[in-house]
Write a structure and sequence with these properties.
Layout: H1 3-7, H2 15-26, H3 31-45, H4 69-86, H5 95-102, H6 110-129, H7 135-144, H8 148-155, H9 165-205
Helix pairs in contact: 2-3, 4-6, 5-7, 6-7, 7-8
């Protein structure tokens, strides 16, 4: 795993962005993970990491002590996977991949799901609301995290998938016209045939 994947950002030369990513990850890192983050920071920036707040909270503080250390670790791993997914524009539009990450037990348990949703809300929710994701992805995220505004956007019908009422009516009329056109030549031909037969029999009788 590269230093950028550990930090959860795309490669950049912006030291401030690297520092912010490092501090954000450190908020829910274990001692072992903190060392990996520090190494990733050094590799990405070329400098020693310096947290603004020198006291890093324990992993259990991620959900206000509602989650234990193991559950907090699961939340962190899911967030890292989501950040890695967001670095791949193609895969992030696949609802199946989102489901594989978020619905995998035990991350699908309600307390963990809510915590993951809270951590993603300020970042992922606006993207889902403004159409950055495909409709299946936005619909899944809206339902999974109960983001009702996202559900509303995802459930809006795409007008390109449905013809306008007038166009649909016009198409129906056009479909019916050939039937009428094909009917009248048959009637006319039948009448002409009767006339010819009448003339023939009339001549024979004379």
């Amino acid at each position: 795993m590269s230093c950028w994947e550990i930090l959860g950002i795309e490669p950049t030369g912006d030291r401030e962005q690297i520092r912010q990513a490092y501090e954000r990850q450190m908020k829910f890192a274990s001692s072992e993970e903190a060392q990996r983050l520090a190494d990733a920071y050094r590799e990405a920036s070329g400098h020693e990491p310096q947290l603004r707040d020198p006291v890093a909270p324990q992993p259990s503080s991620v959900a206000g002590d509602k989650l234990d250390a193991n559950e907090s670790q699961i939340v962190r791993e899911v967030i890292i996977q989501i950040k890695a997914l967001m670095n791949d524009p193609g895969r992030q539009q696949d609802a199946g991949i989102w489901k594989a990450i978020l619905c995998e037990p035990p991350a699908d348990q309600l307390p963990l799901r809510r915590e993951i949703g809270q951590q993603l809300e300020s970042w992922i929710r606006p993207l889902a609301e403004n159409g950055s994701f495909s409709q299946p992805v936005a619909r899944f995220l809206g339902e999974w995290f109960e983001w009702f505004s996202v559900q509303d956007v995802a459930n809006e019908s795409d007008p390109r998938n449905y013809p306008e009422p007038e166009l649909a009516e016009q198409a129906t009329e056009e479909d019916q016209v050939p039937q009428m056109v094909n009917f009248w030549p048959a009637v006319i031909g039948w009448i002409i045939g009767l006339v010819i037969l009448t003339m023939l029999f009339g001549g024979m009788g004379g």
